[in-house]
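Notes from the 1:1 (GR / supervisor)

We went over the backlog. Supervisor wanted to see one worked example end to end before approving the batch request, so GR pasted a single chain during the call. The sequence is below; no edits were made to it. Supervisor asked that the structure be written out right there so they could see what the output format looks like.
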Amino acid sequence: MILSAWRIVRQEHLATAFSGEGSSLYPGRWNKAGVPIVYASGSIALAMLEILVRVQGVDRLPVYYVAELRFDETLVEQCDFGQLPIDWNSDPPPPACAQIGDEWAKGVRSAVLCVPSAITGESNYLLNPAHPRFAEVEIGPPQKIAIDPRLLPEPPLKRKRRRKK
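Structure output shown during the call:
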């Protein structure tokens, strides 16, 4: 069966969006610095939530692009939920989560690892650009995606005061 995942990236990161460079420099829940992993989500909506959870009041939103990834389920390893620490979805995440991702990536066990989203519990996908079968992941053309400003917190300086009557 063919699975789809979605990755949303800033315009200025399109050239390296599937290299793992970003997560290697700025680690996430499932990796430490120096370990290249590509993060993707099981739906556009979840990918959007993963972006929005990091956005704080902004005056001008960056330009984002979304790309669909398609891959055969035989490329996917499922995360063993029994090995997750009890606080796996806390913020900040426990180091054990990064250890799981690092061991998977460094062990080159599969091209894709399915992990739960800390936001919803739905499927997120980690892709290992160092895996020999990573080339089998089809990456669709990036398309510009708009983030509805109603989903964003108001910038602190832009809040309007109500006049007293």
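Supervisor's comment: The chain has one domain: 2-153.
Batch request approved.
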